[in-house]
Amino acid sequence: MATKQSASASDAAAISRQSQPSPNDTKSNIAAKAAVLSGVFWGLGQLFNRQYVKGILLMLLEAVGLIYLINYLPRAVWGIYTLGETPSQMMKVGKLYKMVPGDHSIHLIIKGLITLLVLFIFVWVYVLVVRDAHAVGRIRTKGDKPNNFLQTLEYIKEQKFAYLFLALPTAAVLFFTIMPIIFMILLAFTNYSAPEHIPPAKLVDWVGFQNFKDLLQLGTWSGTFYGVLAWTIIWAVLATVTCYFGGILVALLVQQSGIRLKTMWRTIFIIPYAIPQMLSFLIMRNMFNGEFGPINQYLSYFGLGKLPWLSDPFWAKVTVLMVNMWVGIPVTMVLVIGILTTIPKDMYEAADVDGATAWHKFRAITMPMITYSTAPILIGQFAGNINNFNVIFLMTNGNPPNGEYQYAGSTDLLVTWLYKLTLDNNKFNMAAAIGIIIFIIVASLSIWSYRRTRSFREEDMIQ
Amino acid sequence: MSVGAKKNSRTRLLFSYLMLIIIAICVFYPTIWIVMSSIRPGTSIYSESLIPSNPTFEHYVSLFTSEQYQYGRWYLNTLKIATLNMIFGVILVVMTAYALSRFRFYGRKNLMSGMLVLGMFPGFMSMIAIYILLMQLNLLDTHLALILVYSAGAPLGAFVVKGFFDTIPKSLEESARIDGATHWTVFIKIMLPLSKPMITYIGLMTFAGAWGDFIFARLVLRTKEKWTLAIGLWDMVNNASSNFTMFAAGAVLIAIPIALLYLFLQRFLVEGLTAGASKG
What we know:
CATH superfamily of the largest domain in chain A: MetI-like
Number of helices of chain A: 18
Strand content of chain B: under 5%
CATH class of the largest domain in chain A: Mainly Alpha
Shape of chain B: globular
Structural class of chain B: mainly alpha
Helix content of chain B: over 70%
Structural class of chain A: mainly alpha
Low-confidence stretches of chain A: 1-26, 455-463
Oligomer: heterodimer
Radius of gyration of chain B: 24 Å
Shape of chain A: flat
Strand order of the largest sheet of chain A: 1-2
Largest interface: A-B, 98 and 93 residues
């Protein structure tokens, strides 16, 4: 339904923007009439403009939309406002006690959101339809013949191709990304959590900023939050830096003059990238197994003690960083090799003429070229590492446990903590609040870096 | 070149080869270890030596015959989901990227910043909502749900492809337009053939994404027959009755097709990644 509406929306938009500003002297009576008619009921103005097929289609569309909204809108508003009034409960029906289903707060939110989304689209199309009627009316005052239906379709295909192309992806994103995100944002302001407020037996209420206050100030929560936040940031910095410089180093090693079989080396080093990540992590987890894993086996073979790779807080952190390097370095390597091949040779030749040493050339040519091209990627990787769920979840699952933390272990990142809170502990409100905080961190970082790279580009340092 | 410089460069090369070999060992060791584990008799992780003295292929056989593991079925499930996701994901991504790159329309800037912002939310922050949504639509425990959600999320990753389309000169399509080609013909006949490397890259990425996704699949798929490989394998090593050698065999069979694809399509990987880099 959403798709259909947005398609017709782009239809209407198509016409409305076709209008040329008509000469001021013709006070467009027809246009105003058409607009008012369409305002009364979609399609009337179009019929008035003698666009019959379009008019009838729009009338049908409004009828469908109105029926939907009349049926659902009141309950949606009520649901979102109150989050339900009667929980499911046992009630005496006749002689037996029966479970009487009440209001399910969470379902009320979701259904309410969908209805509001439809309302939003409805209002939007409304505006477009009125504008379309007005625009076509103006064309008629100028004495031109309005498009017939086939011409309208043709017009959309040729002039509004972009909207046509974007309709389907937009609908998909609206429904499966935006709506769920709004839902989770709303949850952050409720008390939806175990054990007190889990529907259908109990109701959920709006609590304002209480969750954020608890998270930042309340002893039990804030202790965990700051601890996990600190590790998340340390992790993101170290993981990004190690992979980035590791990748550059490997790329330079492979590409330096005099190394034979470059393609072979490159292919070998791409292997970790080619193995599905989740497999690599599961394999590594077993390799670093403290008791039976081969790594500790080798260590004891060489007369060294076994290391608590995954069971000691410090070593567990080291291990995930190392494993992350194994998985992450190939990406940077492939990238940097690609960049290295694009650096013009004459730059180096000119440097040779000036008597530059290898180190000088690296400092003055290679490194700036690499950083220039990879700076945006670097920021992206940093943001990705803040949200790097797989490596922690599959390697350590946040373990080893930390007694001081609330539902989190020593290696838990904010995201894995969020996961545990939702799926294992049903503290949905806290999880949503954490999600918002992660978003704020990543967003401010991205905006900051975006500004910087912009100004960086405008300096025209290289081209 | 002086003798000293020559000697200098020789030690440099020697040192470099040494480094390369060490890194290669680090790269190879886990892969060799898992292959060797998959042909080792018994079920445990522990082994006396890396190369088993009496190799066996029984784990591979029992993957497909065992009652407990429905590996063959999981394999087909995953293949189905990944392929369909690749097709729909690529279509959506290419459509979005093409519209954003080639057309200037009202709301374009806002749309692009909106996409950037949406990409910054932690992915499964919305999982609970999607879960409830799927429940309402009666899609829980179906493969359709996975395909739908994976492909619906794909357009947000359109920037890399947009960056690629940006590099194709406008004059190409302009001349075609003058010759009377419609937008659709330009797209199908000119742009798509030119963007083969990019489409290959995106296809590979979406395929591999669905092939290896674990979190969302585990949330949605509940019955064992519907599982994907990722859930099945995770279950193999996470279970109390874990069977490591069987897991190893399963892992090898999953990794091989993807790894081969990656290695054969290396060229496209480089192009795809660098296109993303310079356009950021």
